[in-house]
Write a sequence for this structure.
């Protein structure tokens, strides 16, 4: 019998509410297939700061390093907003990404047909949208040196972040993107700002060089400002997108709107030995603690975990299928309610999906 060790890091805010639903979905898969999932709790983010003084205790990092996969919630919240950068809750997540070398962040954004009307955008724009955003996750502005803030002799301060990329850092994520594009519609849009940034010129050159190894893939280069516009103007134009860390952070939030709600979007962070799976939404302080958050992004992240870290693609299909069935039946949480008469709570939605997964075996 296979035993899968899962590091369970719900974090803060609605992470505490939705991640247990994703865990439940995996437990249902375990029950049906005989696989055993062992979950071990790790502290991260604000809850780790409160308990230990830092956003990622060594024990949690070790837990992640030794697991088969990481099921992550979200980190941050108003309570910790005034802490200095280096000890904020977000640092915990950034440190895991860096230490585990999770350089490729896959963020699929698909507009489910039954949720077309949940998107604030017109049906004619979003219908048929099916994107995969691949965001570089361990370099660029987030990690570049020098960085810092210093007082200037004449008064005032100077603050620095550095957007830096090496050929190797670009190559490995772009290669991952080509591989993903090959399994999709074989169209890759590389997003940069090469009309201004030197880093983007190296990025573009590298994409062009690698493109020769993937003659089947149709490559286009899109400037990031133009891409931001095209994504809400004609999202169906795109299939697979690849971009650097900060651009990817921004564009993937934008892409979330195309899927109806942030509450629908899963993600996988891959590269090193252990993959990390988290919903794209954050801690949502405005609804945290109310039990109304949409657990679908977390549950779909668990499906990605099954597919990418455990090589259990057919179980992943069942989890994704169960989510679709429940949506088809008209069940909705508040964020995707549209014209549905009743909004379900987090656990109610989790229950329905788990029951549907059970039935699929
Ligand atoms: C994300 C989040 C994180 C990021 C924060 C929480 C550090 O916005 O995963 O998109 O900026 O990468
Ligand atoms: Mg973000």
């Amino acid at each position: 019998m296979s035993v899968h060790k899962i590091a369970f890091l719900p974090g803060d805010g609605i992470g505490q509410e939705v991640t247990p639903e994703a865990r439940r979905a995996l437990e249902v898969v375990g029950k049906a297939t005989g696989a055993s999932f062992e979950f071990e709790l790790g502290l991260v983010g604000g809850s780790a700061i409160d308990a230990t003084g830092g956003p990622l205790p060594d024990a949690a990092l070790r837990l992640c390093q030794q697991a088969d996969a990481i099921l992550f919630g979200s980190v941050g919240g108003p309570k910790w907003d005034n802490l200095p950068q280096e000890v904020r809750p977000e640092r915990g997540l950034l440190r895991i990404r860096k230490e585990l070398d999770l350089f490729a962040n896959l963020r699929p954004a698909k507009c489910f047909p039954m949720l077309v009307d949940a998107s604030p955008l017109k049906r004619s724009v979003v219908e048929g949208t099916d994107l995969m955003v691949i965001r570089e996750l361990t370099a660029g502005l987030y990690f570049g040196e020098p960085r810092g803030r210093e007082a200037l002799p004449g008064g005032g301060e100077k603050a620095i972040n550095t957007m830096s990329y090496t050929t190797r850092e670009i190559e490995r994520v772009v290669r991952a993107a080509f591989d993903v594009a090959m399994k999709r519609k074989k169209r890759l849009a590389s997003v940069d700002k090469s009309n201004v940034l030197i880093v983007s010129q190296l990025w573009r050159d590298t994409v062009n060089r690698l493109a020769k190894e993937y003659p089947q893939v149709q490559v286009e280069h899109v400037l990031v400002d133009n891409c931001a516009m095209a994504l809400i103007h004609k999202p169906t134009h795109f299939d697979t997108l690849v971009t650097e860390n900060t651009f990817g952070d921004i564009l993937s939030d934008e892409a979330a709107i195309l899927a109806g709600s942030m509450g629908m979007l899963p993600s996988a962070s891959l590269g090193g030995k252990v993959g990390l799976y988290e919903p794209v939404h954050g801690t949502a302080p405005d609804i945290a603690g109310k039990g109304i958050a949409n657990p679908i992004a977390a549950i779909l992240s668990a499906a990605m975990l099954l597919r990418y870290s455990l090589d259990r693609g057919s179980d992943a299909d069942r989890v994704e299928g169960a989510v679709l069935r429940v949506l088809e039946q008209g069940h909705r949480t508040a964020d995707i309610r549209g014209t549905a008469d009743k909004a379900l709570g987090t656990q109610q939605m989790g229950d329905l999906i788990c029951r549907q997964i059970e039935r699929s075996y």
In short: Residues 15-33 form the longest helix (19 residues). The two ends are 18 Å apart (CA to CA).
